[in-house]
Inverse folding.
């Protein structure tokens, strides 16, 4: 089983991924991981997020290509080996991040989707939805993709994609961490019971 956390920077993904991991690891064997991954391409991406060298469309396409490359590395090195051992994998960002950030940056959605078509599908994706103002006020550090106007576009892309995809749950992430966690474990419990 594969569970992904999505949402704009400051929406609470890392907080909720950790809380779910703590709760789930008492019941099942599970792995907590994230993108960009800890591999070589992941490290390269982090350098670009910390100090971008451009803001043009080609640079965005380059970054999203790195994300796809990192995902190939991450899936083959971490996600699939863990899933094959029967572990539940929780990932902080996954395919949907590339689709929504890429498309908010003006890259064609058809390419973004095609480039991600071969990866294992997440069984559950939680989109932590909060206004860009609240999200940004929670974070001191912002990277190149998280100017308020851009985050607003990303947020609406997330909501658009969530409406047309199965297994994507939009969670009101403006509530307290405990309330958000409660909502998530309700959905995860039902899913596990149904298996
Ligand atoms: P993300 O990984 O999506 O960028 P984080 O989990 O790092 O978000 O959370 C960003 C900041 O907001 C952290 O300081 C975290 O403690 C705080 N935070 C997380 N969830 C909530 C919440 N539901 N309400 C208020 N603050 C939160
Ligand atoms: Mg985070």
């Amino acid at each position: 089983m594969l569970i992904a956390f999505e949402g704009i920077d400051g929406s609470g993904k890392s907080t909720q991924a950790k809380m779910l991991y703590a709760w789930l690891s008492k019941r099942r064997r599970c792995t907590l991981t994230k993108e960009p991954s800890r591999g070589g391409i992941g490290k390269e991406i982090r350098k670009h997020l910390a100090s971008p060298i451009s803001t043009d469309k080609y640079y965005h396409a380059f970054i999203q290509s790195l994300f796809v490359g990192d995902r190939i590395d991450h899936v083959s090195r971490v996600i699939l080996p863990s899933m094959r051992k029967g572990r539940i994998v929780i990932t902080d960002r996954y395919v949907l991040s590339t689709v929504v950030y890429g498309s908010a940056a003006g890259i064609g959605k058809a390419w973004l989707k095609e480039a991600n078509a071969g990866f294992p599908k997440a069984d559950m994706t939680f989109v932590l939805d909060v206004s860009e103002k609240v999200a940004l006020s929670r974070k001191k550090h912002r990277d190149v993709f998280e100017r308020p106007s851009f985050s607003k576009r990303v947020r609406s892309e997330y909501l658009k994609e969530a409406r047309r995809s199965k297994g994507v749950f939009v969670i009101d992430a403006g509530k307290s961490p405990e309330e958000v966690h409660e909502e998530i474990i309700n959905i995860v419990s039902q899913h596990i019971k149904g298996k």
Remarks:
- The CA atoms of residues 57 and 106 lie 7 Å apart.
- The first strand starts at residue 2 and ends at 6.
